[in-house]
Amino acid sequence: MLKIKNLTCGYGTKIVLYDISFNIDRGEFLGIIGPNGSGKTTLLRALSRAIAPMKGEILVEGKDIRTAPLKKLAKTIAVVSQNPPLNHMTVEEFVLLGRIPHYQRFQFLEAKKDLEIAGRSMDLTGIFKLKDQSLSQISGGERQLVLIARALAQEPRVLLLDEPTAHLDIAHQVGILDLVKKLNKEFGLTVIMVLHDLNLASEYCQKLLLINKGRIHKMGRSDEVLDYQTIEEVYKTIVVVGKNPLSSKPYILLVSEEERQKRKRPC
Question: For 228, which of 87, 181, 221, 243 is 20 to 30 Å away at the CA?
Answer without folding.
Answer: 181
